[in-house]
Amino acid sequence: MLEIEGLTRKFGDTIALDAVSLRIAPGEFVGVIGRSGAGKSTLLRLINRLVEPSAGRIVFDGADVTAKRGGALRDWRRQAAMIFQQFALVDQLSVLENVLVGRLALTPRWRTWTLQFKAEDRALAIEALDRLDMAQHALKRADELSGGQQQRVAIARALVQEPRLILADEPVASLDPRSTAAVMGALKRINAEDGLPVLCNLHHIDLARDYCTRIIGVRRGQLVFDGPVEALDDAAIRSIYDQ
Amino acid sequence: MMLPSVRSMTSSAAQPSGDAVAMVEARRAELRAAKRRQSLLLLVVLAVAVLVAGHLGEVSWQKFVDGLPRFGRYIMRTMPQLSLESFGADMSRWMWNFRVWVGLLVDTVLIAFVATTLGVAGAFALCFAASDNLAPNSIVYHAARRTLEVLRTVPELVFALLFVFAFGLGAMAGVLAIALHTMGVLGKLFSEINETVSDRALEGVVAAGAARGQVIRYGVVPRVLPGFISYTLLRFEINVRSASVIGFVGAGGIGQELMFVINQFIYRDISAILLLLIITVALVDILSEWLRHRIIGGELQR
Q: What SUPFAM superfamilies does its record include (chain A) (predicted)?
């Protein structure tokens, strides 16, 4: 159970996120919608602690995430796996090595200097790639792949982190329709089969309707809609998009 | 804990996942073996090259060991006698020519400053023609490249000797010598930064109908400027060191004085001048580091 209370983030004078409170239960597939700059990305980055909150608290299964430091913080980041719009792969590393980045927080640091991992870790990474139909590309350089393929590598990286929560920040905004279906389908399968909660920023309301069970609407940093996907009617959409 | 999230996902590929692991691992082993052979070969070649070069260059371990005590004795001889009771008097005796030396050091920094400025201007003018993605044609490209090559191949001291011969003793010769060398080195570095700007990033400007110069001004310069500034400040530090040496051939700065006291075996003065030189270089380092952070840091924040 992820609990967020009064989460606020200011950048100078602008308030990117304004006292947002919400709870996310295991197994939910939550779509976050809103205009560009409404604070959707900031919300996800705050949860992973890539951005520090100005005020408010994040609690996961009773533990205060906002208080974590050092090793505990890195372990939380591993559990709250991020997926980015621009994939955030290291172009010069192989696909397999990119997936193994997801094992870094679970491997003693001295072992990782040479880019060598244990055979079990490699097997785990290859299986994760195989589940996303990417095993045949494992030894290519990451930048040889298409956008949709790169995003599936990023999902494999998230999977081997042994996450307890998936945070996807516009995962399909740079992809064509077919790749979009492949990536969203993969997220949906992970959500359905493992009961992992997914928090996913989306631009397209149609995608939100197709894949999400619950919708959160953010407008100018404030939570203006929170309900099951069926409750998202035209009036709700107008209020979220400020029309 | 084995990973349920990975294993429980149904695959659209019908084969069991063990096959994928075996397949990737086999291919990986092949690639690694090939890579290992390659690195081993490289290592052997490098070791042999170093040994041969050392032998031919008469770099001798024995000579080094024999000479080490002499080096130590020389250093000891340059050390001043300083005692706690009469520290002030000892210091002023050691630094007896302080005003003259500081004046010469200021000259040295000024020579480096003027030379760096001129060198950067020259490098900026040539670097776009010397980048293979921006040069108008291969004749201009090769002409620019070769010019820069010649400028940085001729050592500063040789340039300085030529200019002392032409323009007489003094700072003018030093400025020109360092400026030309700087132009050669920075021109090459700048052009390499230019080459990292991808064609794709420029297409937006080209597709709007911009001329070559406009493409460079709007598409390239904004991207490469932080890199240029960084290399320029680094070069300024290096040039302060160079400017303290070119005085050896009469081209101005502290070098002339340093050469004189070394040749005349005025040991105390050697250590005094070197100490002041080290302090000067450290100050320049600190200043340029501060500048770099201000400029580049501001660039990153945008």
A: P-loop containing nucleoside triphosphate hydrolases (SSF52540)
Same domain for B173 and B115? yes
Please determine, for residue A201, whether its predicted confidence score (pLDDT) is greater than 50.
yes
Total domains in chain B come to 2
| Within a domain: B195 | yes
Please write the tens of the pLDDT for every residue from A42-81: 999 999 999 999 999 999 999 999 999 988 999 999 999 9
CATH classification of the domain holding B245: 1.10.3720.10
- Under 8 Å CB-to-CB from B22, ≥6 apart: which residues? none
Strand order in A14-24's β-sheet?
A: A14-24, A2-11, A55-60, A63-64
Q: What are the CA-CA distances from residue B46 to residues A121, B70, B223 (Å)?
A: 34, 32, 37
Q: Confirm whether pTM is higher than 0.80.
A: no
Determine the distance in angstroms separating the CA of A194 from the nearest CA of chain B, rounded to an integer. 6
Residue A177 has pLDDT above 60, yes or no: yes
**CA distance linking residue B165 with residue B157, whole number of Å:** 12
Claim to verify: residue B167 and residue B277 sit in the same structural domain? yes
Q: What are phi and psi of B268, to 5 degrees?
A: -60, -40
Total CB pairs under 8 A between chain A and B: 68
Residues B18 and B107 in one domain: no
Instruction: Work out the pLDDT band at B11, boundaries 50, 70, 90.
Output: very low
Distance from CA of B26 to the nearest CA of A (A): 11
The two beta strands, A214-219 and A29-33, are parallel
Kindly give, in sequence order, each residue whose CB lies less than 8 Å from that of residue A68, ignoring residues fewer than 6 positions away. Answer: A49, A75, A76
State the pLDDT confidence band at A162, using cuts at 50, 70 and 90.
very high
Say if B193 falls within a structural domain. Answer: yes
Say whether domain A2-241 belongs to CATH 3.40.50.800: no
Q: Does the beta carbon of A81 lie under 8 angstroms from any beta carbon of chain B?
A: no
Q: Is residue B115 over pLDDT 90?
A: yes
Is A159 near chain B, with CB under 8 Å? yes
Same domain? For B146 and B284 the reply is yes
* Judgement on whether residues B167 and B32 belong to the same structural domain of the protein: no
Inside any domain, residue B71: no
Does A139 contact chain B (CB < 8 Å)? yes
* Token duo for residue B79: 């050390």
Residue B84 resides in a domain: no
Nearest by CB: B28 against A127, A130, A139:
A139
- Which structural domain, as residue segments, surrounds residue B47? 3-59
**In terms of pLDDT, which residue wins out, B302 or B79?**
B79
Three-class secondary structure of residue A109 per DSSP: helix
Nearest to A194 among B5, B20, B28 (CB): B5
Residues B26 and B114 in one domain: no
